[in-house]
Every structure is written in structure tokens, then in C-alpha cells.
Amino acid sequence: MVRDQVIAAIRADRAAKALAAAADVMLARLRAGETLSVVAASQQLVPSEMANMPRGAPMPHAAASEAYFTAPAPTAGKVSPGKAALPDGSIVLFVVSKVTPGNLAEVTPQERAMLQQQLAQASGSDDARAYAAALRRQMQVEVAEERL
């Protein structure tokens, strides 16, 4: 039983390393100027275009969405390639071809109020965590083992 688990773990590790190496090679090709379609086709993969993706979109995964928005903005006539490792072990390669800055004039009053509420909640949560951490540093806690 343990032997089979060890063999499976070794195989999974080797597969993950091979996948990461292949992704690095494809990313290097993208950075060298090859198109995503050509790179994907060479590996029998089908690229998908996700135009006008909003920040925080959960597709294909939140980790990938975060990577799209942390990639540098492309320069004129170029793309900005990148990759994101997903929790299931897969890797997403992407290119950012255009960045559209937000326009505050297009935000409705309802959206603005919702965003303000979300920011206030996040700020309040951060403040509460910081306050609790400061209290813990100041107070001495004794654990009564016999009462546990």
C-alpha cells in the first residue's frame, strides 16, 4: 500500500515538473514573439479568447484572473504574455493584448455605493484583525491545561 502511494507521488511530481517545464518553454516562445495560436497548435491545444474580461472574473479560475491583471500592460503592437498555476495543478498561459483603464463616469451610483460598502467592510475587517493582534501581544495568556 505505502509502496503504491510513494510510486504515485513520484509520478505525480514528475508529471507536474514536466508540465511546468513545457509551460516555461511555451511562455518563452510567446515572449519571443510567436502568437498564442501557433504555440497552442504546436502542443495540440486550443486557445480561447476572453475579450473585455473584468477584474475579479472567476474564469477559468480566480488565480488566473489575478495573473491577468498583474501582468504588465502591453506596449503598442505587442502583447504581454504570462502564466498562472491553478490549484488543481494545471497551468494557464495567456497573453494580454489590450488594457482598458476604468472610467469613473461609467460607474452607476448603485455600483459606486456597493464598492464603497465592500471597501469599508474590508477596511473594517483589517482594522479588527490588527486590533486583536495588538491586544494579544499586550496580554499574557495562561492556559489552564486541567480545564481543557
What would the average pLDDT be, to the nearest integer? 89
Q: What is the number of helices?
A: 4
Instruction: Give me the Rg, rounded.
Output: 23 Å
Question: Which regions have little confidence, pLDDT < 50, spanning 5+ residues?
Answer: none
Order of helices and strands: HHHEEH
The total number of structural domains is: 2
Question: How many strands?
Answer: 2
- The portion of residues assigned to helices is 40-55%
What distance lies between the first and last C-alpha atoms, to the nearest angstrom? 37 Å
Per the principal axes of the C-alpha atoms, what is the gross shape?
Answer: flat
Class derived from helix and strand content: mainly alpha
Brief write-up:
With 148 residues, the chain is mostly helical.
Summarize the helices and strands and which ones pair or pack.
Elements: H1 2-31, H2 36-42, H3 62-70, E1 80-85, E2 91-96, H4 109-138
Highlighted features:
148 residues; mainly alpha; two-stranded antiparallel sheet; 4 helices; 2 strands
Description:
- The protein is mainly alpha-helical.
- The chain folds into two domains: 2-96, no CATH class; 104-147.
- Helix content is 51%, strand content 8%.
- It is built from four helices and two strands; from the N terminus they run αααββα.
- It has helices spanning 2-31, 36-42, 62-70, 109-138; strands spanning 80-85, 91-96.
- A two-stranded antiparallel sheet has the order 1-2.
- Strand 1 and strand 2 (91-96) form a beta hairpin.
- The protein starts with a helix and ends in a 10-residue tail after the last helix.
- The mean pLDDT is 89.
